[in-house]
Each structure stands twice: as C-alpha cells, then as structure tokens.
Design goal:
The complex is a heterodimer of chains A (about 140) and B (about 375). Chain A is mainly beta and about 140 residues long. Chain A has one helix and eight strands; from the N terminus they run αββββββββ. Helix content of chain B is about 30%, strand content about 15%. Classes of the chains: A mainly beta (about 140), B alpha/beta (about 375).
Chain lengths: ~140, ~375
Amino acid sequence: MSAGAGIPLPRPSELSQPHWDGCRDGVLRFQRCRDCGTAVFIPQPVCTGCFGDGLEWMASSGRGIVYSYTVVHRPQRPVFAVPYTVVIALLEEGWYMLSNLVECDPADVAIGMPIEVVFRKMSEEITLPYFRPVRG
Amino acid sequence: MPRHPFHDVALVGAYHTRQAKVLAGVRELDVVLDAIRGALAAANLTPADVDGLNVRSSVWRLNPREAAAWLGGRPIWTGVSLGIEGVIEAALAIASGQCETVVIADAQAGEYTDRDSTSPWTRPTNEFVACWGLYTAAEFALIARRHMHLYGTKPEALAEVAATIRNHGARHPDAVFHGRHVTPQDVLASRMVADPYHLLDCAINSEGGAGLVLTTARRAADLGVTPIYLLGGAIERQGMAYVTAPVWDRYGASGRRAAQRAFAQCGLGPADVDVCELYDPFSFELIRQLETFGFCKEGEGGDFVMNGRIAIDGECPLVTNGGLLSFSHPGTAQLLQKVTSSVLQLQGAYPAELTVPGATVAITSNGGAGALFCDVMLLGREPA
C-alpha cells in the first residue's frame, strides 16, 4: 500500500490549514457556502458557486462512493508501492476529493462502491485521509 | 460582419528539429537555435525579418526576452505563452500592428534524468494530489474510467486509437518511434501503467524542438512558400491542472466552448475538417475530443474510432505524424508541435503515404480533460 514512509507529504497553506488540522483531529473538513449551499473542495478563498464570502468549514460524514478510480502499476516515484488504487471519492455532502483506496484488493474496486474515510498519521503535522470499503 | 483579426495572419514556416529519446551530447540551447533557424528557412525569411518572438526552452528556462538579445535587440515584441495559446498571442500581436513577423520556438533536452520516477513534467507537487501517487497518466485515467463506466467504452477502442496513431508515426522517418508498428493487440498486451492505460496508450518521453513563423497574410503571399491561414482559435481553462480531482461531470467537455468559438470565427464546423491533429497524450483523450468538438455524439466516440475511420484514408484522419505517442513528446515544445504538425500536413510536407489527399482544413488542440484545459485551433490552406 502507498501509505509508506517517504511519500511526498502535503505542505498546508493558509487556505488549507483548517482541512489538515481536521484530518489530524480525525475530522474530514470541507467548505460549504452559507448563502448558496455549494460544497467546495479543494479549499478556496471564495465560493465557487456564487463568488460570495459565505464559505464555512464543515465536518463531512466521511462516507461516500467511488466516483472513478485507477489502479496504478507504474509508480509516480519508487516510494509508492504498487499496485495502488487512486480514487475520486464523491462524499455524501456532494463534493469530490482525490485519495487512495486501502484495505481493498484492486480487483474488487468498482465505481459506485460505498467507501469511508480512514485516517493515517504520517507525521506530527500531517494525517492523510485514505478511504476503505464500507464493510457490509 | 467585420473581418476577424486572425484572418489577416498566416503561418508560413514550420519546422521540427531532430527528435530522439535522448539527444545525447546536444546542448538544449543549440536545439532552440536549430528550431529558430529551421522555421525561418522554411518561411524563406531571415533573422533580420523578425520583429517579434516567443522563444523558450525547458531546462535552461530560456526567457523570450533573453532570446530577443540574440537578435541584437531588434525584435520589439515578445510573447510568453505556450503552444496554441502562444500562437494565438502572436497572431493577435501581428493583427493589432504590434509587429509583423514572429518566430516561436521551444525545445527540451536533458530534462528527464530520474528514470525511476515518472517524467518530471508529469509529477505534481500539489498538497491534494502528490501524496496519492498521482501523475498525468493517472489523472487522465480517472477521466477515461468514468467514460467507460457511463458509456461502455471498451479498452479495444482505446487500443485502436493508440495503434493507429503509433502506426502513423512508424511510417514517418523523423518520428522517434519510426519503424515501430504495433497492433491493437500489442497495445492491450503491453504492461499496465495506470488502468485503463497500458504503456502503449501513453505518450512517449523524448527530446527535441519545434519552430514556427507567423506573419501577415499580405506578406505571406510574397514569400514563395505555401501559407497556412489561421481560421480560428480559442483557449479554454477551468482551473489549474493537477490540483483538484478530474471529475468527468465538470471537465469531461473541456474544449467544447473553445471549439465552438473557433468554428464560429470562420463559419466552419466539424464536417468541414479534413484532418484532426488533436492532442494525444493518452489514447482515450482522442475519443473524448472527437466527442467534445462535435465529430460524434457524447458516448459514441468509442465506436466512432473503429473500422479505419481515423486512418490516413479514413473520413477523420487522426494525428498523422504519430504525435505524442510516436513522433515525439519534447517537454513543452510538444504543445507547439501540434500546430507545426498541422501546418506541415496542410503544406503537403509529409511523406506521401501520410499526406491526407486534398486536405485544406485542419483542427488541432492542446490539453485535455485530465488537465482542466483544452485549447483549439483551426488552420486552412485557403484564407477564411
């Protein structure tokens, strides 16, 4: 699995720090506009739905589905152990994020598969939000 | 209706330097110089004729203003954009009277050294992307996989695209993969890179350069070359590439608005296009662009590319010199290479077996859905 040591870790910005702070605390955070309701991710300074200033940080349920995926056999860098599964997760609140699917044989991945966030601590500052299948 | 300013501009010289997996012992700056000189020679022009330029390179990070000094400071206009965007920028500079003759050149040699990792221009650094092991092939795979899910697009269709384009390159003596013929079965049997992309579904890595000369349509008529006219062009950007999820529902039609605007500028449509020199980083991206630009309906691209339709003698000849899959993928020069390839095809400069008989209108593009941008340009042998 790709949750190995040495992978390139995020360097939070002033925009994204609340998201990464949330991950460290076990909460998957995204932004939602209090005016138009648009769910926004990646973090933005302004609502991408109405260009207003109504964005607020919200806690996601951490549950969603696989929107699309690719099983990667040629690693970006050797530090990523292959094969690894990259997913676009569509969260219940209607926003998308990139992640890796873990605890799942690549042969079993399917679009529409229910998934949930699982946090893995990578350093004192960074905890990464992976996803795994929801056990039925 | 007032004449569109693009229609006063012609592309009069296009040139590709030698392309190779590695240009061993060659300085990148010499490749740039070759690209400039080759394009000017193709246009029957000399450095003294140049009053605008946009010349750059990848490793040296050559700045166009640095290159302006090579010409004794005579050029007064410099551009900064890459590929189609750079050609549009130069055309507008000419059409607005800021300069008359622009040379554009781009080259790369020696950029890819860490061969254990994917090539440096494919590796993102963004905080929401890099940690998941993403790189360009995986980004574009996420788009392809969604389309396959929605429309039942088959790996065999992707393989047909890759094999057809690679076999065009196999027949071009200047292609890096000259002589490397493949079948769709070879594509499907090649090792998996990022599902559904096999190795042979993906662009190659190589080195080289490209050069292009633009001038006024009026001046083009007196040069003794075959002018290619700029019929239309538009860029389309939906955000930074490789920072956010490439979601089909948001970006699957990337380039549609650019294509519609380009076609509207000259009153043409897909049925008027004779050759498609489309951006070909990965096999599925061609299927997507054919749908997005209106050559077929959304979801029908997988069937559209079968049965010889995209071959040189088909109704929709696609990437006739082998493109990024076989001819070359030299750094950012590959973006400019799409325009130069289109010019050379329309000028009849390709080997006879790769020349589309009677082709007068070409469409070309840069970028794709996985990169959140898609720019479109239309070129013609006849003025608009």
